[in-house]
Protein backbone atom coordinates (compact mmCIF):
# COMPACT_ATOMS: atom_id res chain seq x y z
CA UNK A 1 0.00 0.00 0.00
CA UNK A 2 1.44 3.37 -0.92
CA UNK A 3 0.93 6.55 1.03
CA UNK A 4 1.27 10.19 0.06
CA UNK A 5 2.91 12.89 2.10
CA UNK A 6 1.43 16.37 2.69
CA UNK A 7 2.83 17.57 -0.66
CA UNK A 8 1.13 14.66 -2.52
CA UNK A 9 4.35 12.74 -3.26
CA UNK A 10 4.06 8.93 -3.19
CA UNK A 11 6.39 6.67 -1.20
CA UNK A 12 5.88 3.86 -3.77
CA UNK A 13 9.21 2.74 -5.23
CA UNK A 14 9.56 2.93 -9.00
CA UNK A 15 9.36 -0.42 -10.80
CA UNK A 16 12.61 -1.91 -11.99
CA UNK A 17 13.23 -2.96 -15.59
CA UNK A 18 15.64 -5.68 -14.43
CA UNK A 19 13.02 -8.37 -15.04
CA UNK A 20 13.46 -7.81 -18.79
CA UNK A 21 17.09 -9.05 -18.68
CA UNK A 22 17.15 -11.19 -15.52
CA UNK A 23 16.16 -14.47 -17.21
CA UNK A 24 18.74 -16.67 -18.95
CA UNK A 25 17.44 -19.64 -20.95
CA UNK A 26 19.32 -22.72 -19.77
CA UNK A 27 17.38 -25.45 -21.55
CA UNK A 28 14.47 -25.59 -24.00
CA UNK A 29 13.36 -29.09 -24.98
CA UNK A 30 10.16 -30.79 -26.01
CA UNK A 31 9.75 -34.05 -24.08
CA UNK A 32 8.47 -36.99 -26.14
CA UNK A 33 5.73 -37.83 -23.65
CA UNK A 34 4.29 -36.72 -20.37
CA UNK A 35 2.46 -39.46 -18.46
CA UNK A 36 -1.25 -38.72 -18.04
CA UNK A 37 -1.92 -37.43 -14.53
CA UNK A 38 1.81 -36.93 -13.94
CA UNK A 39 3.06 -35.25 -10.82
CA UNK A 40 6.15 -33.08 -10.76
CA UNK A 41 8.93 -33.25 -8.23
CA UNK A 42 12.23 -31.45 -7.86
CA UNK A 43 15.06 -33.16 -6.01
CA UNK A 44 18.61 -32.26 -5.01
CA UNK A 45 21.29 -34.94 -5.49
CA UNK A 46 24.67 -34.63 -3.76
CA UNK A 47 27.47 -37.11 -4.55
CA UNK A 48 30.78 -37.16 -2.67
CA UNK A 49 34.03 -37.21 -4.68
CA UNK A 50 34.26 -40.21 -7.00
CA UNK A 51 30.81 -41.60 -6.16
CA UNK A 52 29.47 -43.69 -9.09
CA UNK A 53 25.91 -42.48 -8.49
CA UNK A 54 22.70 -44.40 -9.06
CA UNK A 55 22.93 -47.84 -10.71
CA UNK A 56 21.35 -48.14 -14.19
CA UNK A 57 17.71 -47.10 -13.92
CA UNK A 58 14.77 -45.47 -15.68
CA UNK A 59 12.09 -42.91 -14.86
CA UNK A 60 8.39 -43.05 -15.80
CA UNK A 61 8.48 -39.53 -17.26
CA UNK A 62 10.95 -36.92 -18.44
CA UNK A 63 13.59 -35.43 -16.16
CA UNK A 64 15.34 -32.06 -16.47
CA UNK A 65 18.54 -31.32 -14.57
CA UNK A 66 20.92 -28.50 -13.72
CA UNK A 67 24.39 -29.03 -12.24
CA UNK A 68 25.00 -26.63 -9.35
CA UNK A 69 28.50 -27.73 -8.34
CA UNK A 70 31.15 -30.08 -9.72
CA UNK A 71 30.78 -32.41 -12.69
CA UNK A 72 28.30 -35.22 -13.39
CA UNK A 73 29.12 -38.24 -15.55
CA UNK A 74 25.91 -38.65 -17.58
CA UNK A 75 24.90 -41.44 -19.92
CA UNK A 76 21.58 -42.38 -21.50
CA UNK A 77 20.89 -45.42 -23.60
CA UNK A 78 21.98 -44.84 -27.21
CA UNK A 79 24.03 -41.73 -26.39
CA UNK A 80 27.74 -41.49 -25.62
CA UNK A 81 28.82 -40.84 -22.06
CA UNK A 82 29.47 -37.16 -21.36
CA UNK A 83 30.41 -34.90 -18.47
CA UNK A 84 27.96 -32.14 -17.49
CA UNK A 85 29.67 -29.33 -15.61
CA UNK A 86 28.38 -26.78 -13.09
CA UNK A 87 26.09 -24.31 -14.83
CA UNK A 88 25.11 -26.80 -17.55
CA UNK A 89 21.88 -28.73 -18.04
CA UNK A 90 20.80 -32.22 -19.05
CA UNK A 91 17.52 -33.98 -19.69
CA UNK A 92 16.21 -37.43 -20.33
CA UNK A 93 12.96 -38.53 -21.93
CA UNK A 94 11.98 -41.12 -19.33
CA UNK A 95 9.84 -44.11 -20.24
CA UNK A 96 11.77 -47.10 -21.57
CA UNK A 97 15.17 -45.36 -21.92
CA UNK A 98 17.88 -46.59 -19.53
CA UNK A 99 19.86 -43.97 -17.62
CA UNK A 100 23.23 -45.68 -17.15
CA UNK A 101 25.21 -43.04 -15.24
CA UNK A 102 24.69 -39.96 -13.09
CA UNK A 103 27.73 -40.18 -10.82
CA UNK A 104 30.39 -37.71 -9.78
CA UNK A 105 32.94 -37.33 -12.60
CA UNK A 106 35.60 -36.01 -10.20
CA UNK A 107 37.57 -37.80 -7.50
CA UNK A 108 38.63 -34.58 -5.80
CA UNK A 109 35.39 -32.62 -5.36
CA UNK A 110 31.71 -33.22 -4.57
CA UNK A 111 28.96 -32.61 -7.09
CA UNK A 112 25.42 -31.33 -6.61
CA UNK A 113 22.61 -31.17 -9.11
CA UNK A 114 18.89 -30.48 -9.17
CA UNK A 115 16.46 -32.62 -11.17
CA UNK A 116 12.81 -31.88 -11.89
CA UNK A 117 10.87 -34.99 -12.96
CA UNK A 118 7.37 -35.70 -14.16
CA UNK A 119 6.32 -39.04 -12.71
CA UNK A 120 3.45 -41.28 -13.72
CA UNK A 121 0.84 -41.57 -10.94
CA UNK A 122 1.24 -44.54 -8.62
CA UNK A 123 4.68 -45.39 -10.05
CA UNK A 124 8.04 -45.07 -8.30
CA UNK A 125 10.21 -42.11 -9.28
CA UNK A 126 13.03 -44.46 -10.22
CA UNK A 127 13.23 -48.15 -11.13
CA UNK A 128 16.56 -49.99 -11.19
CA UNK A 129 17.33 -52.12 -14.26
CA UNK A 130 18.42 -55.70 -13.52
CA UNK A 131 21.51 -57.41 -14.97
CA UNK A 132 19.45 -59.63 -17.30
CA UNK A 133 17.78 -56.65 -18.98
CA UNK A 134 21.11 -54.79 -19.19
CA UNK A 135 22.58 -57.79 -21.04
CA UNK A 136 19.58 -57.99 -23.41
CA UNK A 137 19.80 -54.27 -24.24
CA UNK A 138 23.61 -54.10 -24.47
CA UNK A 139 23.49 -53.47 -28.27
CA UNK A 140 21.49 -50.25 -27.60
CA UNK A 141 24.26 -48.78 -25.43
CA UNK A 142 26.70 -46.38 -27.11
CA UNK A 143 30.30 -47.64 -27.36
CA UNK A 144 32.22 -47.21 -24.11
CA UNK A 145 35.15 -44.75 -23.97
CA UNK A 146 38.57 -46.38 -24.16
CA UNK A 147 40.52 -45.92 -20.92
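^ C-alpha coordinates above, recovered residues below v
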Amino acid sequence: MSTKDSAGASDEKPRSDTWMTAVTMLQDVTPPHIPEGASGMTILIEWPPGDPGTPPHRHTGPAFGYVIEGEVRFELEGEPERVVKAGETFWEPGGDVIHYQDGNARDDAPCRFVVTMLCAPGQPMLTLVDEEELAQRAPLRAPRPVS
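Strands lie at 39-47, 57-58, 63-69, 71-76, 82-85, 89-92, 99-101, 111-119, 127-128.
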